[in-house]
């Protein structure tokens, strides 16, 4: 499975991999990126070919709905910025 990159509600890059979300800690000189799980201290490294190596076991179960909720929030936020119609009409459209 390849890595999926998304944006947190605060605009930070996140990695979604096998049902877990990671926050970017640093970019390495070789182009790889070092990530840490948003719910525990598990770390992962992503590479330019979108492969990922997870270093430890997570202390919680994976949650695919986290990614879906985050994507839904991003879409709503984007629509609210782009949309010029009144807010009450906006909610009936979507």
UniProtKB/TrEMBL annotation:
Protein name, UniProt field: FLYWCH-type domain-containing protein
């Amino acid at each position: 499975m390849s890595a999926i990159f998304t944006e947190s509600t605060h605009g930070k890059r996140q990695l979604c991999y096998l049902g877990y979300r990671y926050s970017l800690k640093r970019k390495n000189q070789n182009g790889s990126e070092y990530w840490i799980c948003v719910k525990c201290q598990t770390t992962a490294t992503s590479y330019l070919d979108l492969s990922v190596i997870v270093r430890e076991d997570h202390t919680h179960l994976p949650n695919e709905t986290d990614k879906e909720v985050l994507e839904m929030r991003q879409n709503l936020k984007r629509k609210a910025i782009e949309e010029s119609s009144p807010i009450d009409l906006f909610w009936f459209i979507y």
